[in-house]
């Protein structure tokens, strides 16, 4: 393959990281008789060049918030602005990585990555070079002709990262992207993804239910209440980067943050547990055992 | 919950568009056949003529909802389909279960099954008449053959669709081969079996109509063709509509039986994706 | 991706035969026993099978036919009818199905009408088709068209609806226009189900063409010398009491049906290379 | 939930597995694949033995061989001295002494939870249906599964389904529980519930546990010993003694001994994981 001219700092220069502002957003479904409120008066900011992680018990409305940020749905009230401009519908400035892979099964890896530029008719020598560079970056250069079904879970995730990055989004939104992977590949993906973020410093918004994943990746941690969801607490994670799994196990500051976040999550779960939500019941069960023992 | 969905459905545009669709279809048919008598449509009876004849206490051609002959034809066809459906289910389901369950059985019988399957069922008509004397048996044989293929094949697919860890788990729990067959293979294959039964009743009606046209004495297929020969064109449409209604009703019954027998699927689907 | 056997240890050959040969042997045995039973049954005049000509008789009734152009001509006619009816069903069915899958309004208008027509078996349309269409060729073609179109449309609608919404969202946020989404998401996404619809549809069309040729070619009460095609060939042999030719006709249609669905399966794999890797 | 007195594996009598130079070669169409090569491992009676290794390295093949779902093409496997499978009997007989809990769960969706749990003894003819359901009700209550007896598996949360499956296995008081990444599909907090529940069940039933996992924290937290396997073909690369006393609880996670064991395992596993990661090894 030809030597790839674009190098990391050139890539970093081309990125115009964005800032997302969510103010008093609410979202509910159904009409007057059967209203279910999913998001209530939720306000937070996703700062430029920062990796913001959102954590909350499963089924608390995080995915709804993601659909609002990405513009797939309109909020019932409140506004979402990117770099000051109000958001209207999906756009290349906010790209989403879903929980299950959304690679087009009928396109090989190269066509998947090139989908964005081709859709917008922006195929130039420079974009093909960037695609080449990104494919090398995610280690899939020799898998370009393979179809998604021929790639392992970890490789599909990396291909999807490349497909999103080529469109140079102002904000990258990830919805529990590593949930399906086995524990070992997951940790490797954490390290890989954190290094990638470190290099590009693109604004990232990462959603998860796994507290260890949140602490490993986050600059800022948003802890969400249960449904109807709103921001319960914001923790600054001032751990040095690059972080490794081993360090975090031994680092007292990391464990302290972990316990702090868990106790907030526990309060939230107790509230919804009284309302009989199945997921919350499991959560409370798990948490009470953990806290009472340690 | 049902009332909520129904009231939501009423407020959405769907029912009104449905009426628009029906209006367009029947309106066009009416205008072309009865009003303008346009081109070839002239020879076809219009919806109004159909309804008049069908609901007429003493119809012109003796075939309406009030005449016993009409119900005799319907019953003859229905009886044949029920016979064929019963035979094909009793033969097809066990055959399909063994095809899926034992590799040896499949390797010996499936080649013959597969070589005979491409032969269109209706190509058997003359041979059926030769093989089975009389009028009734050939028609029932043909209808049974058609639905037998569908039932056996889908039952086999049902057995193959079962996650291999189920029979293994049962084996671990000490179940014998026969107990695994009864407790795991049959209930596991049930969803596919019912898909097969629905297809098979549809195919049964498909072949019955043709078989009746070619060799039947009574039945809706025979009625449709005979009324063409006797130039009673309205009765053709009555026959077609009746076959459609009875066919739809019988497959709806099979669907209901399926839902009743597979409570666990109904409750699981109702909860959305199983947690 | 299977790794080649490591550490140089040559794996012991599998005891007995290789998988492939084992499977074939049993297939041959089962077909042979079927033919032998058929032969004995017919020779001994057992009930049912007694009147059916045995395979040996059928074989030497088939040999002279191979050189008879009339026999091959009936192949050509049936295939032409199947092809024309099938292509018409595809050309109309696929766009209609896609339109119904993509536009909610169009679907709400036309799907109910589609649903009330679907339960009527295609062959119930034969008399009405004969009345309506000027030539017999057109009426048979119309019935074949009806036989295939319902299956194709159902598969197209089902296929389009089963495309995961994530793909639309991903494409939309990467800035694709509606046309772009149709061309590069909906079409490829629906393709596998179209192929399935075609495979099932071709099976139905062969069933319909045989019956239509029989019924309109003199079967039942319609007296007309026109027609031709394998269905007519079988009916003609029946009327002419040459029973072996009936069986020859049946087997020929079976082969024709098998070849056409094999072609469609081959076509399907070519058109959807990614499904092969599943 | 107070844990019973300290439980040492030594005094358990049944459930010792000896794996001796086992080989397993698959004959796929595109050629032979060596899944297990010359693998030897001794699992003591009543011990929790964790099997750790990268995805697709053949761990499940080993489990299937012990359970009797596959044959082996070399070596032998013994349970409490008598041979399960070996040179003259390549395939073991599945039986209630070695019950498997599957990765994606194998509760029969068409039977209620209670019928599932009572299935074993009823099918073996050991108990009548009424007796079996009575015992099942008791064991489910022990595992905190009250009120879900008459639901279908599809109607309860995934954490609960896992517990029902474990209870179903224990109804036959097996010598060995074979677990194939049972908690992989659960989110991390439900997983911690399952760890506690499994330990509790283990303390009450003293059954040998052969546990396959990718999650190192889970391996060290639960296991008496952790066997780290190489990438395909799998064979034990290193056996780690986890000398943290049972009964264990979550405070163990932050103890220094746990951290050093964790470090040892991560290093041992890391090269194997990266090798698999690069080759894009798909699950076998």
3D architecture notes:
The complex is a heterotetramer of chains A (294), B (275), C (278) and D (284). With 294 residues, chain A is α/β, with parallel strands linked by helices. Chain A contains eleven helices and ten strands. Chain A is globular, with a radius of gyration of 20 Å. Chain B has 275 residues and is an all-alpha fold. Chain C has two domains: 51 residues, no CATH class; 220 residues, MetI-like (MetI-like fold). In chain C, helix 2 packs across helix 10, helix 5 packs across helix 6 and helix 6 runs antiparallel to helix 8. Chain C is globular and about 75 Å long. Chain C is an all-alpha fold. Classes of the chains: A alpha/beta (294), B mainly alpha (275), C mainly alpha (278), D alpha/beta (284). Chains in contact: A-B, A-C, A-D, B-C, B-D, C-D. Chains B and C meet through helix 2, helix 5, helix 6, helix 9 and helix 10 of B and helix 1, helix 4, helix 5, helix 8 and helix 9 of C.
Can you give keywords for this protein?
heterotetramer; B: 275 residues; mainly alpha; MetI-like fold; 2 domains; 78% helix; D: 284 residues; alpha/beta; Rossmann fold; 6-stranded mixed sheet; 4-stranded antiparallel sheet; 7 helices; 23% strand; globular
Structural class, from helix and strand content of chain A? alpha/beta
CATH class of one domain in chain A: Alpha Beta
Chain pair sharing the greatest interface: B-C, 65 and 65 residues
How many domain modules of chain C?
2
Rough outline of chain C: globular
CATH topology of the largest domain in chain C: MetI-like fold
Shape of chain A: globular
CATH topology of one domain in chain A: Rossmann fold
> Would you report the number of β strands of chain A?
10
Poorly predicted sequence stretches spanning 5 or more consecutive residues of chain C: 1-17
The CATH homologous superfamily of the largest domain in chain C is named MetI-like
Instruction: Characterize the main sheet of chain C.
Output: none
Distance between the termini of chain A: 55 Å
């Amino acid at each position: 393959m030809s030597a790839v001219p674009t190098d990391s700092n050139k890539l970093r220069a081309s990125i115009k990281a964005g800032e997302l502002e969510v103010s008093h957003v609410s979202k509910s479904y159904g009409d007057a008789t059967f209203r279910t409120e999913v998001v209530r008066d939720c306000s937070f900011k996703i700062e430029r060049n920062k990796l913001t992680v959102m954590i909350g018990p499963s089924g608390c409305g995080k995915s709804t918030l993601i659909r609002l940020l990405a513009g797939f749905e309109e909020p019932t009230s409140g506004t979402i602005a990117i770099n000051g401009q109000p958001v209207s519908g999906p756009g290349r400035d906010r790209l989403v990585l879903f929980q299950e892979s959304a690679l087009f099964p009928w396109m090989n890896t190269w066509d998947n990555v090139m989908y964005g530029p081709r859709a917008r008719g922006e195929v130039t020598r420079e974009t093909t070079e960037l695609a080449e560079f990104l494919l090398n970056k995610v280690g899939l250069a020799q898998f370009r002709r393979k179809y998604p079904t021929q790639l392992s879970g970890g490789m599909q995730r990396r291909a999807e990262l490349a497909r999103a990055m080529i469109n140079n989004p102002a904000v990258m939104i990830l919805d529990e992207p590593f949930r399906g992977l086995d524990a070992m590949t997951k940790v490797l993906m954490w390290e890989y993804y954190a290094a990638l973020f470190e290099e590009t410093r693109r604004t990232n918004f990462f959603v998860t239910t796994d507290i260890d994943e949140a602490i490993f990746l986050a600059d800022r941690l948003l802890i969400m209440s249960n449904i109807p969801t709103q921001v319960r607490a914001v923790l600054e994670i001032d751990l040095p980067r690059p972080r490794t799994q081993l360090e975090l196990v031994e680092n007292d500051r990391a464990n302290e943050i972990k316990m702090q976040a868990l106790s907030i999550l526990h309060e939230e779960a107790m509230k919804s547990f009284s309302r009989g939500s199945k997921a919350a019941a499991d959560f409370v069960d798990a948490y009470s055992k953990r806290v009472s023992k340690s | 919950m049902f009332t909520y969905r129904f009231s939501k459905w009423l407020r959405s545009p769907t029912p009104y568009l449905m009426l628009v669709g029906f209006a367009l279809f029947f309106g066009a048919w009416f205008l072309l056949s009865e009003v303008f008598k346009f081109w070839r449509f002239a020879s076809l009876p219009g919806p109004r003529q159909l309804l008049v004849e069908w609901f007429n206490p003493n119809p012109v051609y003796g075939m309406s909802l009030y005449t016993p002959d009409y119900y005799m034809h319907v019953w003859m066809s229905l009886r044949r389909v029920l016979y064929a459906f019963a035979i094909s289910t009793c033969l097809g389901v066990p055959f399909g279960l063994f095809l899926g369950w034992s590799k040896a059985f499949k390797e010996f019988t499936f080649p013959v099954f597969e070589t005979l399957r491409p032969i269109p069922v209706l190509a058997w008509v003359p041979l059926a008449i030769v093989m089975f004397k009389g009028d009734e048996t050939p028609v029932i044989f043909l209808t049974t053959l058609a639905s037998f293929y569908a039932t056996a094949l889908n039952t086999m697919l049902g057995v193959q669709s079962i996650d291999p860890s189920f029979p293994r788990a049962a084996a671990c729990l000490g179940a014998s081969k026969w107990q695994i067959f009864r407790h795991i293979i049959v209930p596991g294959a049930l969803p596919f079996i019912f898909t097969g039964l629905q297809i098979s009743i549809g195919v049964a009606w498909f072949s019955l109509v043709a078989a009746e046209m070619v060799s039947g004495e009574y039945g809706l297929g025979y009625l449709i063709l005979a009324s063409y020969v006797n130039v009673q064109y309205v009765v053709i449409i009555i026959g077609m509509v009746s076959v459609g209604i009875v066919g739809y009703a019988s497959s709806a019954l099979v669907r209901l039986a399926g839902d009743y027998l597979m409570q666990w699927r109904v409750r699981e689907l109702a909860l959305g994706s199983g947690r | 991706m299977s790794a080649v056997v490591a550490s140089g240890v040559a794996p012991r050959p599998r005891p007995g035969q290789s998988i492939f040969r084992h499977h074939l042997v049993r297939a041959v045995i089962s077909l042979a026993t079927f033919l032998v039973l058929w032969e004995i049954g017919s020779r001994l005049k057992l009930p049912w099978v007694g009147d059916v000509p045995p395979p040996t008789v059928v074989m030497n009734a088939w040999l002279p036919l191979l050189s008879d152009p009339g026999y091959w001509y009936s192949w050509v006619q049936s295939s032409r009818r199947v092809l024309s009816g099938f292509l018409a069903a595809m050309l109309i069915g696929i766009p209609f199905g896609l339109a119904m899958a993509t536009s909610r309004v169009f679907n709400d208008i036309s799907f109910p009408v589609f649903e009330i027509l679907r339960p009527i078996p295609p062959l119930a349309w034969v008399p009405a088709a004969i009345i309506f269409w000027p030539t017999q060729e057109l009426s048979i073609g119309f019935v074949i068209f009806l036989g295939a179109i319902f299956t194709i449309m159902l598969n197209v609608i089902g296929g389009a609806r089963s495309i995961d919404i994530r793909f639309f969202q991903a494409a939309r946020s990467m800035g694709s226009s509606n046309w772009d989404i149709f061309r590069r998401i909906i079409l490829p996404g629906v393709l596998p189900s179209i192929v399935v619809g075609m495979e099932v549809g071709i099976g139905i069309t062969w069933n319909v063409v045989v019956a239509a040729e029989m019924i309109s070619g003199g079967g039942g009460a319609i007296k007309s010398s026109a027609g031709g095609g394998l269905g007519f060939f079988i009916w003609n042999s029946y009327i002419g009491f040459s029973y072996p030719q009936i069986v020859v006709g049946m087997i020929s249609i079976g082969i024709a049906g098998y070849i056409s669905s094999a072609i469609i399966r081959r076509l399907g794999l070519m058109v959807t290379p990614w499904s092969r890797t599943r | 939930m107070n844990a019973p007195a300290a439980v040492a594996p030594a005094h358990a009598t049944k459930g010792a597995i000896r794996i001796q130079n086992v080989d397993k070669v698959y004959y796929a169409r595109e050629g032979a694949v060596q899944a297990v090569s010359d693998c030897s491992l001794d699992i003591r009676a009543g011990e929790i033995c964790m099997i750790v290794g990268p995805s697709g390295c053949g761990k499940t093949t080993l489990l299937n061989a012990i359970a009797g779902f596959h044959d082996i093409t070399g070596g032998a496997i013994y349970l409490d001295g008598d041979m399960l499978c070996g040179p003259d009997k390549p395939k073991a007989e599945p039986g209630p002494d070695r019950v498997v809990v599957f990765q994606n769960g194998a509760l029969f969706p068409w039977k209620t939870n209670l019928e599932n749990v009572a299935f074993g003894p009823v099918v073996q003819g050991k108990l009548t249906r009424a007796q079996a359901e009575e015992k099942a009700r008791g064991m489910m209550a022990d595992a905190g599964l009250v009120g879900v007896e008459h639901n279908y598996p599809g109607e309860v949360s995934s954490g609960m389904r896992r517990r029902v499956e474990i209870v179903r296995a224990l109804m036959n008081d097996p010598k060995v529980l074979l677990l194939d990444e049972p908690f992989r599909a659960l989110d991390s907090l439900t997983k911690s519930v399952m760890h506690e529940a499994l330990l509790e069940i283990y303390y009450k039933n003293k059954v040998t546990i052969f546990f396959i996992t990718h999650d190192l924290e889970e391996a060290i937290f639960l296991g008496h010993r952790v066997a780290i396997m190489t990438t395909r073909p799998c064979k034990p690369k290193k056996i780690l003694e986890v000398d943290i006393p049972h009964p264990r609880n979550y405070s163990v996670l932050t103890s220094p001994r746990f951290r050093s064991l964790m470090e040892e395992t991560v290093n041992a596993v890391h090269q194997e994981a990266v090798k698999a990661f690069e080759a894009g090894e798909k699950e076998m």
